[in-house]
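queue> pop job 88
queue> type: inverse folding (structure -> sequence)
queue> payload:
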């Protein structure tokens, strides 16, 4: 069974902030000591860190839930609770992180050691020392900690390679990779010998180096899900140069030029922008008897069907078996890489805007709906956050929450919707009576 995994869906939960504390000074010689309850500690973030030692997302196959620790509660003597440590999650280079709910891309992690906070921990709740005023010097009010951010993420690995080898199965891509790099891909005389991407480093005679990825063989219809192509086409998106390997001996009984057109059609169907990448045509298996004649016909068809305004791709006859023409091919590839810029992988419409963790002024503070059981239901991020951070064990805190609701206009809005004295109002699982 293949141990390569390049997609995963996981859930992350940052730590909640610690609850604030209600406490008072009670020393023998300090009369009317006043409030002394400290704040809660910050909850831990969930942080993704790029680890160049990882090659797949296999670690996420069985471990799909990641939860950071919550902050400590506030303590007496005005002491803060300890903040929780961040939860570090290691991911391979080339991991794209999407919000599974919105589909927006949060980050593209490509540099070793790169960090990104995917879920932010909640702040600690305030202790009663924070609520002391001249009018209320001994408040019995504290806040619960803020809930940590919780979200579902879609991870997608797109391997980092400068050059991608594409072509039909059994055209010699794996053999080519094995002779130009120290990679040891599986090689066999049957289709789909390669079922996972293989990566190797090339060093040319002139001293230049670049990474090459051998991608599982494409077939006609790959972009629509036929064969293995649709599963691994994503890995070619990061490449800057494509080496299009063609079996010029036609040993499979196919026409080399038709192979060339079919593979390009699949690349275009998967992602039109793949056709922006420069291609080098690698005419492989030139040690076979029919290859020279087939190459001549191939060139004639290519010239006849190419737009006169487009630049013809370079063609390099090689034999992976006899290592004929390899140095010329590698030098040309390195030269093309030098003048080919990085391609933008995602446009702005796919990226999530920079996160803002306050409340948008344009967003309503609350919404009112009615359940089938005739209970009024209050919802909304701001209202629900105030509710979660209210310590309902303290009467003063409950009264403060009631004043906050009134200040937000909840009472007036319920009255306008037809709420009567004694009607039940629900926030989450908490219910109370509406008092007109």
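queue> result:
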């Amino acid at each position: 069974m293949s141990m390569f995994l390049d997609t995963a869906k996981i859930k992350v939960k940052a730590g909640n902030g610690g609850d604030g504390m209600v406490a008072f000074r009670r020393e023998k010689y300090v009369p009317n000591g006043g409030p002394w309850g400290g704040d809660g500690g910050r909850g831990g973030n969930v942080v993704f860190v790029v680890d160049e030692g990882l090659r797949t997302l296999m670690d996420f196959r069985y471990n799909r839930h990641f939860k950071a620790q919550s902050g400590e509660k506030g303590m007496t003597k005005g002491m803060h609770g300890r903040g929780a440590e961040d939860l570090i999650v290691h991911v391979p280079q080339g991991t794209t992180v999407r919000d599974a709910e919105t589909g927006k891309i949060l980050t593209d992690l490509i540099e070793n050691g790169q960090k990104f906070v995917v879920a932010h921990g909640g702040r600690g709740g305030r202790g009663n020392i924070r609520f002391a005023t001249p009018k209320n010097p001994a408040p019995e009010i504290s806040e619960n900690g803020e809930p940590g951010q919780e979200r579902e993420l879609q991870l997608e690995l797109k391997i980092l390679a400068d050059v991608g080898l594409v072509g039909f199965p059994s055209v010699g891509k794996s053999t080519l990779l094995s002779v130009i790099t120290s990679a040891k891909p599986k090689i066999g005389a049957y289709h789909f010998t390669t079922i996972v991407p293989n990566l190797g480093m090339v060093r040319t005679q002139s001293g230049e180096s670049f990474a090459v990825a051998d991608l599982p063989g494409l077939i006609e219809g790959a972009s629509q899900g036929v064969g293995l192509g649709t599963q691994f086409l994503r890995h070619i998106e990061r490449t800057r140069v494509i080496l299009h390997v063609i079996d010029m001996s036609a040993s499979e009984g196919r026409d080399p030029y038709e192979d060339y057109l079919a593979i390009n059609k699949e690349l275009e169907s998967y992602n039109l922008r793949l056709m922006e990448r420069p291609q080098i045509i690698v005419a492989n298996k030139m040690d076979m008897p029919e290859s020279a004649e087939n190459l001549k016909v191939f060139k004639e068809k290519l010239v006849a069907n190419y737009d006169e305004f487009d630049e013809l791709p370079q063609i390099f006859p090689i034999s992976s078996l006899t290592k004929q023409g390899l140095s010329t091919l590698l030098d040309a590839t390195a030269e093309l890489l030098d003048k080919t810029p990085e391609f933008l992988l995602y446009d702005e419409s796919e990226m999530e805007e920079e996160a803002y963790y306050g409340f948008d002024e344009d967003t309503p503070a609350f919404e009112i709906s009615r359940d089938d059981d005739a209970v009024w239901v209050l919802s909304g991020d701001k209202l629900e956050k105030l509710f979660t951070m209210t310590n309902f064990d303290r009467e003063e805190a409950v009264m403060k929450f009631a004043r906050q609701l009134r200040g937000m206009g909840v009472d007036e809005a319920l009255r306008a919707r037809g709420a009567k004295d004694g009607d039940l109002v629900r926030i989450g699982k908490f219910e109370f009576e509406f008092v007109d």
